[in-house]
Amino acid sequence: MDIDGFRAELETRLFIEKEYIVQEFSMIDDDQEKFELLGRFNDKYKELIKRLALENGIDLDASYQNESNSSNSENLSYEQIILGKTMNIYEKLAEELYEKITSID
After folding, report:
1. Which of 63, 71, 89, 95 is 20 to 30 A (C-alpha) from 17?
2. pTM of the model
């Protein structure tokens, strides 16, 4: 799987996880517990990256290689590349979750 395909699959799965957390949120009365859901969402993001990498035979610690790498470019790991290309997805969904948690009904 290429990085863009990985990103798309991660986005889909992370969106589903966010929806599960939103459903759980509606059953929690304690504010502290609600904010702990953000931490769980962060953990889910990391878990999903590892799970998708395993499913697709990607060694997250291996150096990322592509045709455009030149001899003077940095050697980044697959994990670093994936985090760089998917962090904006995580941030967007985490912000939506944060807004849900802090909104006054």
Report:
1. 63
2. 0.82
